[in-house]
Amino acid sequence: MSGSVEAIIQESSMSPEESAALARDLAKIVGEEGVSTKMVDRLATCRDFWPLMGVWFVEGKVPALPDVIVWPKSTAEVAAVLSLANERGIPVTPFGKGSGVLGGAIPLRGGIVLDTKLMKRVKELDRENLMITVEPGLNGALYEEYLNRHGFTGGHFPQSVRCSSVGGWLACRAAGQLSNRYGKIEDIVVALEAVLPDGTVIRGPKKPRTSTGPRIDLLFLGSEGTLGVITEATLSIWPYPEQKAKLSYAFDSLEQGLTVIRKIMQAGGRPAVVRLYDLDETAGHFPETREAEGRCMLVLLIEGDSTLVSAEVKLAQELALEEKGLDCGEAPVDHWDERRYNVSLSSKMIRQGAVLDTIEVTANWDNAFTVYKNMREALLNVEGTALASGHYSHVYPEGACLYMTICGFAPGDKTEYYKRFWSAAMEACLASGASIGHHHGLGLHRGLWMEEEQGENLKILRRIKQALDPKGIMNPGKLSLEVAEKWQK
Ligand SMILES: Cc1cc2nc3c(=O)[nH]c(=O)nc-3n(C[C@H](O)[C@H](O)[C@H](O)COP(=O)(O)OP(=O)(O)OC[C@H]3O[C@@H](n4cnc5c(N)ncnc54)[C@H](O)[C@@H]3O)c2cc1C
To answer: What total number of domains does the chain contain?
Structure first.
C-alpha cells in the first residue's frame, strides 16, 4: 500500500521524509516548480496505456507509484538530475506521454519519474537538408502541425500521434500508419542526443550515414529508458505530398491479399498505407461495402510526387487484378481515414468487464500467413477468448507486421487470463518462426519473452546495460535486462 492507493507490483519506495529531502535537492537543479511529490502527479505518471492497467484502474489499483516527479527543461538539467540519482542509486524512469502499451513507463521501484513534457522546443528546421531537430517531449500531433505549417510532413503517424512524444517513439522503435512510404521511426531518425546515467551527454552525427564505427546514439533506439534519456532528435522530413490516391480491393482469401502486397513491395512500390484485414476485421470495419462481404479487404493510400503516384497506382491495380481482387473504390479508404485515431471502443469494453489487448509481431512472407493462423488458433483456444482477429500493416520487401486484436471475458481472475492469452500468443508466434514485436516495444510485459526472442544477444545487452548503468538506476525491471520480482509469466 502507498497512501490510500494500492500499488500492486511496486518493488520498493521511499519514506515520505526521504522523498521530501530528494525533492528539495532536485529543486536546486530544476527549480521548485520543476518538482512534485503530490499524489495527483504521482498518479498521472505511474502508468502508461498498458490495457491490463486499465483493468486494474477500474478496480482502483495502480501498478506502482513514483516518489518524486521531475520536469527538466534542458539537456543540462537532465544530466544534473541523472548524476544526482546515479550518485545515490535512486531509480529513474523516463516518461514521455505515457501512451506505451506494455507497461514500459511504470516506476516499479519508485524513485524519480523524469517527465520530458517541458522539453518540447523545435530547435532547428533545416529546409535545405530536409531535417528537423526537436526536443524529446514534443507531442506527436504538434510536431506534425508545425511541419505542415512550413510545407512539410514528418511522415510519422502512430495511432497514438496525439498522445505520444518524439522521445517515446524513438525509445520504443515506433511505426506510423504511413510507415510503408516514410519508414519506421528508426528509418526516419538522423541522429540523437542522449544523457547517460552518469550525466555524460552523447551525440550522433547529423550526417547522411557514416562509416566511423558503431553508432552509440542509435543504441538508444528501442532502449525504452533503460540506458539513459534521449534529450534531442534530428529527424528526416519530406515536402507535403503533392498528390494522394486511394485504392481498395476485396479478396476471397487472406493469402491472395498477401501475395498482392508482397509483389507491390518487391517490385519497389511504396504505398504510404497498406492494410490487409482478415474476415472478422473486414466484417467489423467495412459492413457497408457489399463486395467485401465474406472477403478480406485491402486498403491502399499512395501519396507523394504526382508522377510517382501514377506509376504506383498502375502497379497496384495490375497486381490486385491479377489476384482477382474486387475493386471497392475510394470509400473504404475514406472510412479508414475517418476512424484511424478512434479507439473509444476498447475503453468502453474494459468498463464492461472485458480483457483485451493488441499484439503486433513481424514475419517474413514465407510464413506471414502461418503465423496468423497459428496465433489466432492459439488465442481462440484460451478459455474466455471471444475474438482473435488480425490485419497486416507496415509491409516490407522481406515481410510484414501482423497486428492481432484479442478480446475476452476472463473465466476467473482477469490478470491470470491476460497472462494466459499472452503466453499462448507468444508461444505460437515463436514456434512459427516470427519475431515477437514490431513497434510497441517490450516494456514490462513483453520483456518476459526476451530470452526466447534474443537468445545469446540478451547476455550482450545485459553487459551493455551493466557498462552504461552499473548501478541499474534506469527504468529497472524492463526488457528483461533484470528480473522484475513481482511480474513474471
Ligand atoms: C491508442 C494507442 C495507439 C497506438 N498506436 C501506435 C502505433 O500506431 N504505432 C506505434 O508504434 N505505437 C503505437 N502505440 C504505442 C505508443 O503510443 C508508442 O509506444 C509511443 O511511441 C510511446 O510514446 P510516449 O511518448 O507515450 O512514451 P511513454 O509511454 O511515455 O514511454 C514509453 C517508453 O519509452 C521510455 N521513454 C520515453 N521518453 C523517453 C526519452 N526521452 N528517453 C528515453 N526513454 C524514454 C519510457 O521510459 C518508456 O519505457 C499506441 C498506443 C495507444 C495507447
So the answer is: 3
Q: Burial letters for 225-261: b for 16+ Cβ neighbours within 10 Å, e otherwise? A: bbbbbbbbbbbbbbeebeeebbbbbbbeebebbbbbb
The β-bridge partners of 358 are 405
Among 290, 317, 339, give the residue marking a domain's end. Answer: 339
- Does the pLDDT of residue 485 top 60, yes or no? yes
The answer to whether position 483 is within a domain reads no
Residues 39-91: tens digit of each pLDDT: 999 999 999 999 999 899 988 999 999 999 999 999 999 999 999 999 999 99
Kindly report whether the global pTM for this prediction surpasses the value 0.90. yes
Amino acid identity at 74 = S
For residue 112, give the nearest of 64, 62, 162 by alpha carbon. Answer: 64
**Domain, as residue range, for 212:** 122-239
Closest ligand 1 atom to residue 157 Cα is 8
Query: Which residues are near ligand 1 (CB < 6 Å)?
Result: 48-49, 93-101, 104-105, 116, 136, 158-160, 164-165, 167-169, 171-172, 174-175, 224-225, 229-230, 343, 439-441, 475
Instruction: Indicate whether 318 and 355 sit together in one domain.
Output: no
Q: What confidence tens digit (pLDDT) does each residue in 235-273 have?
A: 999 999 999 999 999 999 999 999 999 999 999 999 999
CA gap 389, 281 in Å, rounded: 6
